[in-house]
TrEMBL record:
Residue ranges of every copy of the 3-hydroxyacyl-CoA dehydrogenase C-terminal domain listed in the record: 475-567, 603-689
Protein name: 3-hydroxyacyl-CoA dehydrogenase
Leader sequence segment: none
Domain 3-hydroxyacyl-CoA dehydrogenase NAD binding: 295-470
Taxonomic lineage of the native organism: Bacteria, Pseudomonadati, Pseudomonadota, Betaproteobacteria, Burkholderiales
Origin species: Duganella lactea
Keywords: Fatty acid metabolism, Isomerase, Lipid degradation, Lipid metabolism, Lyase, Multifunctional enzyme, NAD, Oxidoreductase, Peroxisome
Length: 693
């Protein structure tokens, strides 16, 4: 069943019923239009209510249908909306929970809209690289006015129903029964004529051209090469400058253009990739999860504090354990400082701050944490320290507690083996700053129990993180790949580039930060420590020594006020430094390299294809379950541009044979031995396939 039809007295009710969110696919549209026709033909019916079953009014057009013949097959979404608008009997949209995209556009085609308080209303198409394509850009400004409509369409963000009084004819209390209230409303307006139609209204905005020009400039500056936001402005502009039908036609053309763009395909890929990441083939969706009602965190340093905040924000009490009282005091003070800064910025209320801090307690004794449902270890990155901690945890934690480690490089299986309960051990690799970054790499050890994995995935949602499962290897998915990217960044300096050029090329490509600015933010000493370990463990791998020389100059990054760049107090801007650049040039000379001009294209290819090639190895080894998981890691943890879909998707769009050819070319160049094309990449390229295909 995709839309149900019932008659209550003189009111016909059409209930969209296409779980989980009543996406308006072909079958749903067909059934709903049939419902409208049935109501039209029934003389006993005087008014019609359209609503949605389950957890949404409607999440909009069915995204899975895009770029398939079903998307445009009749009755199209336009036809559905036009049928409702053209009905000779009044049609009332009865909205609850979620009303988005095509769902909101449908309601704008209805003669009346009623809603429950708190329903989330949005035109989120821009987040999929699109614009509202079923009349939203023309009808919403006619209802809300130009400026509020433009804000909703360009941001895509949801707004609560009670904040949109102009949109609704009636708003019912959040706990009211929607359907009886909507039926009563429909009965009340059944005989009112003429039927009110949004299309008949005008958008009035004095001096609209000046406002639209200001919007174009602002949006262009913010969106960069991502086309959808500016297209949103142009189509909304048409609601003022064109007649309704012409505006609709213009919207249609721009929508059909955007839906074919790589950026939109990338964003739709990311949408589904995010949801797919939480599914593990051998862990069924109905695997019971362990209740997480309390947490303990070992180590109140940079990561421990941030991780604690995630739990506190989700309302889960946290007990923080440290070796020394001073470390505890410092950790707690830092947490409070973060919350106070949010308070100052108006992002948090004093009440919420107090509530969160009241959930935080601390201890120096393992005896106090035994009853926690999960414990996350975030102590120094040394196996010996981890061993001591996990042996203690094994001794004190109640049976069934989950023992998680935040290690970024160490072997989770070895850590699990320090306990007599390796099934309960898992890696939860948060990213810094842990209270901000969306990514949570969930490291599945070879013994990790399925319900522990299912619990960690469910927990990631509760903590508002994107959980991605990784197998055990050095660096897991994200850091293992970034190492190859960083190596290339170093080799580029040896060959002729300067940090500023590399960063600018990467940032123009869309990375939030280029490799050197990122190094300065994370602390260059961290990479230095890892490389020192590698020089001993894996002497066969070559690295540029430039970064070591930088550290030897004492330039660890922002924390020392100087790294690849200079920094000024109270200013995060990076200022190039002559001594660093001279060191780089001198290092090339010492290596006997004649520096050359390197193009931005080469810089981007070498950085991104280094990620892709390592990603292919990771996929082949089964460390990542699927290419889209790797993409999620990069989109949510490493500032990879969202509208490029992640490194693996980007490689697919660049064409794997082209990626392979470039890798072969770079293998002939400076430090060419770093480029060994992954067998999976070679295979897929030869077969004309893609990573995400
Ligand atoms: N089409 C198809 N499937 C959809 C969908 C849609 N519009 N919206 C959600 N889904 C699917 C998800 O893929 C997921 O599937 P899965 O269970 O197989 O993984 C399932 O519904 C549940 O989704 P969430 O996990 O996101 O559930 P939540 O309850 O957290 O959120 C939601 C629900 C707020 C509706 C959220 O899913 C969402 O934001 N969806 C996207 C809405 C959107 O972008 N709509 C615009 C569509 S484009 C459009 O309408 C074009 C028109 O202008 C012409
Ligand atoms: P940190 O040095 O800031 O904090 C570590 C804390 O652990 C210190 O406060 C220390 O007093 C405490 N500690 C040490 N031994 C202890 C013990 N035996 N018992 C109780 N407390 C103890 O280190 P950071 O950066 O927070 O890293 C912690 C872990 O998180 C490491 O495994 C690291 O690899 C990992 N990680 C770090 C990231 C980062 O960007 N800093 C990112 C992701 C993971």
């Amino acid at each position: 069943m995709t839309a149900e039809y019932q008659v209550h007295g003189a009111v016909a009710v059409i209930t969209l019923n296409n779980p989980p969110v009543n996406g308006m696919g072909l079958a749903t549209r067909t059934a709903a239009v049939q419902g409208l026709q049935r109501a039209a033909a029934d003389d006993a019916v005087k008014a019609i209510v359209i609503t949605g079953a389950g957890k949404a009014f409607s999440g909009g057009a069915d995204i899975k249908e895009f770029n398939t013949p079903q998307a445009l097959a009749e009755p199209s979404l336009h036809t559905f909306i036009a049928t409702a608008e053209g009905s000779s009997k009044p049609v009332v949209a009865a909205i609850h929970t979620v009303c988005m995209g095509g769902g909101l556009e449908l309601s704008l085609g209805c003669h009346y809209r009623v809603a429950l308080l708190g329903a989330q209303i949005a035109l989120p198409e821009v987040k999929l690289g699109l614009l509202p394509g079923a009349g939203g850009t023309q009808r919403l400004p006619r209802v809300l006015g130009l400026e509020p409509a433009l804000n909703m369409i360009v941001s895509g963000n949801p707004v609560s129903s009670e904040k949109l009084p102009a949109l609704f004819d009636e708003i019912f209390a959040a706990d009211a029964e929607l359907l009886p209230s909507a039926i009563a409303f429909a009965a009340k307006i059944a005989d009112v004529r003429p039927l009110p139609k949004v299309r008949d209204r005008q958008v009035n905005y004095p001096n609209h051209e000046a406002f639209l020009q200001f919007s174009r400039n602002t949006v262009k500056a913010m969106a960069g090469p991502f086309p959808a936001p500016l297209e949103c402005v142009e189509t909304v502009a048409a609601s003022v400058t064109m007649k309704f039908e012409d505006g609709m036609q213009f919207e249609r053309e721009r929508f059909l253009h955007l839906i074919q763009t790589t950026e939109s395909k990338a964003l739709r890929h990311a949408f589904f990739a995010e949801r797919l990441a939480s599914k593990v083939p051998d862990v069924p969706a109905d695997t019971p999860v362990r209740p997480i009602k309390s947490a303990a965190i070992i180590g109140a340093g940079t990561m421990g504090g941030g991780i604690a905040m995630n739990f506190l924000n989700a309302g889960i009490p946290v007990k923080l354990l440290e070796q020394r009282q001073e470390a505890l005091d410092k950790g707690i003070a830092t947490i409070r400082k973060h919350y106070e800064s949010s308070l100052k910025k108006g992002k948090l209320t004093q009440e919420k701050l107090d509530q969160r801090m009241s959930l935080l307690t601390s201890t120096l004794s393992y005896d106090d944490i035994g009853q926690a449902d999960i414990v996350v270890e975030a102590v120094f990155e040394e196996l010996g320290v981890k061993e001591a901690v996990f042996r203690q945890l094994d001794a004190v934690m109640k049976p069934g507690a989950i023992l998680a480690t935040n290690t970024s490089t160490l072997d989770v299986d070895k850590i699990a083996a320090f306990t007599a309960r390796p099934r309960d051990v898992i890696g939860t690799h948060f990213f810094s700053p842990a209270n901000v970054m969306k990514l949570l790499e969930i490291v599945r050890g070879k013994e990790t129990a399925k319900d522990v994995l299912a619990t960690a995935l469910a927990l990631s949602k509760k903590l508002k993180k994107t959980g991605v499962v990784s197998g055990v290897c050095d660096g897991f998915i994200g850091n293992r790949m970034i190492e190859q990217y960083s190596r290339q960044a170093g080799f580029l300096l040896e060959e002729g580039a300067l940090p500023e050029q590399v960063d600018q090329a990467a940032e123009k490509f869309g990375f939030a930060m280029g490799p050197f600015r990122m190094g300065d933010l994370a602390g260059n000493d961290i990479g230095w420590a890892i490389r020192k370990r590698r020089y001993v463990e894996k002497p066969e791998i070559s690295y540029s020594k430039t970064a070591d020389l930088l550290c030897e100059m004492g330039r660890y990054g922002q924390k020392t006020g100087a790294g690849w760049y200079d920094y000024k107090a109270g200013d995060r801007k990076a200022y190039p430094n002559d001594a660093v650049n001279a060191m780089i040039v001198q290092h090339s000379a010492d290596l006997g390299i004649a520096r050359r001009r390197i193009s931005d294209t080469e810089i981007v290819e070498r950085l991104v294809y280094a990620l892709v090639n390592e990603g292919a190895l990771i996929l082949e080894e089964g460390i990542a379950m699927r290419a889209s998981d790797i993409d999620m890691v990069y989109l949510t943890g490493y500032g990879f541009p969202l509208y490029r879909g992640g490194p693996m998707f980007y490689a697919d769009t660049a064409g794997l044979p082209n990626v392979l050819a470039a890798i072969h070319r770079y293998a002939q160049g400076h430090q060419g031995e770093a480029w060994k094309a992954a067998p999976l990449l070679q295979k897929l390229a030869a077969e004309g396939r893609t990573f995400n295909g």
